[in-house]
Amino acid sequence: MSTRRMASPPHITGLVGTGRLVGSSVATCRLRGEIARFAQFASNVLITGPSGTGKELVAREVHAQSARADRPFVPVDCASLVGELMASQLFGHVAGAFTGANCEALGCFQAANGGTLFLDEIGELELPLQAKLLRVLQERVVTPVGSYEGRPIDVRVVAATNRNLLHEVRAGRFREDLYYRLHVVHLQTVPLRERPSDIPELAAAFLRQLASDGLPACELADDACAPLTAYDWQGNVRQLRNVLEQAVIEAQGPLLHAGDLTALLEEEWEQEEPNRCDELGAECSEVESAAVEIEPKRVSAGRLTWTTLAEMEREHLVRTLDLTFFNRAAAARLLGISRQALLRKMERHGIAGPEF
Asked: At what angle do helices 127-139 and 83-91 cross, to 10 degrees?
């Protein structure tokens, strides 16, 4: 199987010019620093974060700054293939291994030998394949489908997912031993709405990229950044690029004004709103089903004591954060408060997020 056919399409998540992460927010600078610190090691990496935040770009940065930079970087979408076909793509196969296997295939692990294998959407991998992947990571030997002969490999695995893998482990959908084998170095991407200061830089970089791809050369007018930074960006950086591409195509001149972008963002909001309502309704149902009746406390002497308002608030905050897996933005939406207000309440009650 040729590695060239497995190459991914051009990035739409911030790969511009040098291919570096674009942005100067605290979150982006921290991520950039973590990549520089951990890339030099050969340890496996797990990248987590919402869809559209540039996890593959982070994986490519890890590879580019490692000692393996001159060796192959092979991306694999774990959600696209299932069963023996996926096993064949990952581990290769010998001629006659299954119907249609007329010749031997190298497989992604052998194609990436000496370099980096990027397993995107690792949370979608089927349990039988998870077991085979675990064995390869432990033994550093890959056995092609239809063969009993193991072949040694030297591959750094970088995996990415938008799922909470610990929750998947508890639900029995992801192997705990594989999770810890992958979770050696953890990198977390941040939603675009939590780093709005990156938006002007990203927008300018995307406009340059679109111009180099043959679209009209456009720039943001002075008033154009306000609607971009105020928008919620459920689709994150991928959605930002999509909106800018639409704006460039519809532009009447070289400048994109606030009015041009506002109209497109209103259309985006109208399309997202039904999904938001459905998601919120499902979340509220989960909160209601997870809620327990708060009973009075009794001291050992038999005297009745009542739960204070502060204790009830803290308990409700913890329950909501636990339900959303400490996604502060989602918890704030469920509670009907701003994210900043939630953070202040967490600080007042001494609630710290889980360490990943």
From this structure: 20
